[in-house]
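ugh ok fine here u go
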Amino acid sequence: MRSFILSLCLLLSVSVFAGFEGKNAGASLKIFNKINCSTGMSCSRGANGEFTMTASMLEAAIPAQDEGLNIGRLAIFDYDFAVDGGAVSTIASGVTLPAKAVIEKCWFRVETQLVDAGAGTIAVQCEDANNILTAADQSGVAAGAFLASNVTGVAANMVDDIAAACDISWVIGGAAITAGKIRGYCRYSVHE
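structure:
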């Protein structure tokens, strides 16, 4: 409990604003404002004055607790045709959930309407096929709209106890996607 309180105080005392950068397992977390990197974390200052630390360092700084208050975790991941292409395939988002994660609730926002070359579908998964979003044609969904997920926050729909760390992946099926962008959000917790 003491390590949790110290971690929480460290994060609250530095007025952290964070956002993930990059699309691979080595993605870094940009920490803006002031942070004391002498606490055992190896950080470096970027060109804009921000500090960079790996996502695994952040996970280590915010350990999961068996009891008491825990910090909520939110995975944010994108599919963007301009970056990822649109071939029928499985596309890794670069956002990895840790082993023993419980995915509690997910939702999606269409940033730019998807266009496909026919009967294209898109699904989202981590560990098991279609376990976050079942494959469906999303090309008619307007920009700014939200998509519902299989993981609705109801206990019966949660993805429980991921066996090994897994990348959240987009699965394009049926026909290629030719334009569009969707941002996904998954709230999760980790149990020991």
